[in-house]
Write a structure and sequence with these properties.
Strand order of the largest sheet: 1-2
Shape: globular
Number of domains: 1
Order of helices and strands: EHHHHHHHE
Distance between the termini: 23 Å
Structural class: mainly alpha
Strand content: under 5%
Largest sheet: 2 strands, antiparallel
Helix content: over 70%
Radius of gyration: 18 Å
Length: 256
């Protein structure tokens, strides 16, 4: 492999990537709520547990010499479960509500991206192949997962319900996809927009699974819903092509 075509430590962004990403964010919602609500551990304790798992998995991911699909997606799931309980802690336990929590977390995402860009000159996921860039990547990922959770809960609580919230965020993702194919808007910008929007979509789908029928859900137990979604993710990783992205070095890329 030439110096200007080094393998990235993250998967190529394909249609299969987005299928697994949405499923992982859905698992993050049901899994996070299982610990904090079903098992009664609370938001703070659950957040500490999931953050510990995230730090351990991110350290393994960063120290790995190449892309490992199961390790990568386990780290994504850890970030999204931590994001679920962290957002709930900010929104509810801190008493700043969904608008306040969403604005705070949006500032964190923008701050992480700004610092990453200032240091590296790009926030493209194609550049994720050094420990420093990976650290920026996983910090941004975690903030974006947390922001997505807050946005999903805010939409559902604002009267859209879980089904309505899923439709809204699904429609926004469709707009981003159309912009990717039919406009010259930066693909890097569109990637991060889609990455953030898949989280509230997963959050509303996860809530739709486990909330009571009277609240517009399917009343599936959180542990059972989590097990079903986890099995689906494993099948997707095994069946859908999993390959590392390519870091193009100094080569110019269109739309970035």
């Amino acid at each position: 492999m030439s110096p200007t075509s080094r393998a990235s430590k993250v998967p190529a962004v394909t249609f299969g990537f987005w299928i697994i990403k949405v499923a992982a964010t859905t698992l993050g919602e049901t899994g996070g709520d299982t610990l904090s609500m079903t098992l009664g551990l609370g938001y703070l304790t659950s957040t500490l547990i999931f953050l510990s798992a995230l730090v351990a998995l991110a350290a393994l991911q960063i120290s790995a010499k190449r892309f490992h699909p199961f390790l990568y997606w386990a780290t994504i799931i850890a970030s999204t479960t931590a994001g679920t309980t962290l957002a709930d802690f900010a929104d509810r336990s801190l008493g700043i509500g969904y608008p306040g929590g969403s604005l705070l977390l949006l500032a964190c995402v923008l701050g992480a991206l700004a610092l990453w860009y200032r240091v590296e000159g790009t926030v493209s996921v194609d550049s994720v192949n050094t420990p420093r860039v990976e650290a920026f990547y996983w910090a941004t990922i975690t903030f974006s997962q947390t922001l997505g959770t807050a946005l999903g809960d805010w939409a559902a609580d604002a009267g859209l319900g879980y089904g309505g919230g899923a439709l809204v965020f699904g429609a926004l993702l469709l707009v981003v996809a159309l912009a990717y194919f039919f406009t010259r808007i930066s693909h890097v910008l569109l990637f991060w927009m889609a990455f953030i929007l898949t989280r509230p979509l997963g959050a509303t789908v996860g809530d739709f699974f486990d909330k009571p029928l009277a609240q517009g859900g399917l009343n599936v137990s959180r542990p059972l819903a989590s097990a079903i979604i986890a099995a689906f993710i494993v099948i997707c990783i095994l069946v859908l092509p999993q390959r590392a992205g390519v870091h193009p070095g100094s080569a110019a890329r269109p739309h970035d």
